[in-house]
Every structure is written in C-alpha cells, then in structure tokens.
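Pipeline run #58 for the internal structure catalog. This entry was flagged by the ingest filter as a single-chain record with no existing model, so it goes straight to prediction. Upstream metadata was stripped on purpose; only the residue string is passed forward. Reviewer on rotation: M.T. Logging verbosity set to normal.
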Amino acid sequence: MDINPIVLSIPIYFLLIGIELIVQFIQKKQLYRLNDALTNIGCGVTQQLSGLFFKVLVVAAYQLVYEYLAIIQIPVNWYTIAILFVLVDFCYYWAHRMSHEVNLFWGGHVVHHQSEDYNLSVALRQGSFQVIWTSMFYLPLAILGFDTLTFVSVSAFVTLYQFWIHTETIGKLGWLEWVLNTPSHHRVHHGRNPKYIDRNHAGVFIVWDRLFGTFQVEEEKPTYGVTQAVNTWNPLWANLKPYIAMGQQLQKMPSLEDKLKLLFYKPGWLPESMGGYQAPPEIDIRSYQKYNKKSTALLHAYILVQFVVAMLGTALFLFNEGQLSMSEKIASAALILLSLICLGSLFEVPRKIFPLEAFRILICTTAIYYFGQHASWASSILVMGALSALLSIVWLYYSIYKQTVPTMLDTKIPKSITTQAVEEIYSE
C-alpha cells in the first residue's frame, strides 16, 4: 500500500470539499461549478498518475546527490525534522516563485491557476510537468545531509498544509496573517488582477514573501484565473496547451537568442519585433464572464456518477499500485486518464465524444473483470459489469440526443455572483 501522506489524505480532502459544499448550500453562495470542480480534481488525478513515473526520477536524483555529495548525514529527530520543515518551505518559496518568473517553469505550474473559481477543489488542481522543473530547488537539502525518506515525508506535509487555504469561506485571521500563509494571502496569489500577479508565493510561512519583497495584502476582491484562459474541461489539454502555445511562439522566432529568452524570461516576454512584453491587462468586471458550455441536467448527472466511479477506481489503484506489474500500472493509468478526458470533454462536445465514451465504458468493464477474474464471484462481476455498461450507454445516449433543456449550472455566470463569498468577507 502507498504510504504517501498525500494519497492517504484523499478521503480527508473529499470530506472537507463536502463540508464546503454544505456551507455553500446553507449560505446560498455559489462556490462550485460542476464542470470546473471535476476538472480541478481531474488535473490532480492526472498529476498523481504522472507522478508515479516522474517522481521516481526526481527521488532518484535526490538520493544520488545525498549519497555522493552530502556534507554530513543529519540524524532524524524532532528538532532536525522541524528544521527541515522550515528549509523545505524556504526552498518551496523559491521553486514556486521561479515557477511564476520563468516561462518554461510557468508552463508546468499554470495549470494550478487556470480555474476561474476558488474553492478547495482548486487545491487539487496541479500540473503534471511542474515537478520536473521544481525538483532541482530542493537538492541543496540533500547536500546538507537530509536523507531522502525524511525529505519526501516532510515535503508531503508542506504540501498538505496548503490545501485548506484554497477557500473563500474563511476571512482574515488576525495576527496569524503576519506569520502563516492564509486563505486571504493565497486568494491574492490566485488573482489575475495586475496588482496581485506574482505575489504571495509562500507555502506555509508568509514571512518569505515579506522578507523578499513579494508580499501583497488582500484588498479588493480577486478575479481568479490566468490572463490567457485555457477554456477547456479536458485535464490533459489543460496540461498540454501552455506548452503547445509556447512551441508555436518559438517557431515564429528566427533567433536562437530570442528562443532562449522566451523560455527563461518572464511569462509575457516577446521580442520587440513581436510587440515586446505583454503586460497583464486590467479586468473589466462589468463584462467579465467565466468560461462555460451549455449542457443538460441529465448529462451532468451521468458525468457525476461516472466520475465518482472513476475516482473510486483511482483510489484503489493509488493505494495498491505497488502490487501491480509495470504493464498493469501503465494500462491502469492510461484507462483512468482516458476516463478523465472523456468525462471532461462531455461538458464541451458531447456528441463528438459519444463514440469514445461508449468505447471507454466497454474497456472499463473489461478491466474490472480482468482484476476480479480470480475471485469466487467472477461470473457475477462479469454480469453486473455488462448490465452497468449497457445502462451507462443508454443513459449517455438519451442525455445527449434526447435532452435539450440546458441546466442553470452551465449558463454563463457573472463574476459578481460567483465571488459573493469574498464580497461578504469585506462587508463584515
């Protein structure tokens, strides 16, 4: 079983999201949209899947540095763990800051900022390629002599801390605002208002931003998202689109110097021949609308049910992947990714995606039988799987081709409504 604290915390994540949904219902605030929330979670799952392969290389690199370059071997006790926690957070600050100030790194981190909502599901929205660029910032800790297992464990807890700060339901927290990263500070970080961009990079301790000149207090309510909206509910495309756009820009630049500058200068940099630096635009709140697609309530119900089933399968996979062969890992990860792509795309182009989704259902049924074929009730699994597949395809067909009334959840909602929670914080 995976002992990764982040994986073990998955049930707690969903419990807290459920509590926030209850708060939304009681207070009659719109904090969540189904399409956005499922995409956030889907990006988090995609990052966990890719992490099974990328993190092997990252951890191996840390271990090599520790084995051959460590000055000393620091013993593991309560105060060295406390010191390591602070140092990991310090390294996180610089890794995070550079992920905003270097275009190549931003391509991996931008996924976390793409959501135009701000709720606990956004904490789960992580870029699959980010770890490739940020891992190097932690190697000095290996040189200092902190062993790999302790480093990985402490890093996970620094990450876990940051889950609760992704919410609009908590206001400012008094004197804690001077020391810790709080929901108020992190709302600023997710704002795309020009005054908020590239501010408050801290993980746990906001003192790093105060010390190094990147702190910004929350004033007017933030507008969330990125300056160039990704406009998709497909988690794979959300990860790939920033780098595809970067590649298209590189093709237009004849100079190797300009190509390197595009990669390693600040996001928005362009040579003078292409218009020069593109500063973040001001936001017209009156005309601003979030990305949405009209859909039906029945299709929403189908996507939600299938997504819950996919998440249960994902949880089983993540908790037991150590017992699987490499081919089983790859096949399982590919099937989960296919599920996320299909379900996200159903929000956008349901008729085009119908054949692929029907195919996915059949593949999932086959996979369930494969993993359960040695059980005493394997024949029952096959029958139940076949019936579920048939019901799912009929439900999907009816919700796409027979239902035409759009659900209110998919109409375009002005930002003034979706940020009601933050407005009430300022009115207190």
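catalog note: Residues 163 and 206 are 15 Å apart (CA to CA).
catalog note: The two ends are 47 Å apart (CA to CA).
status: ready for reviewer M.T.
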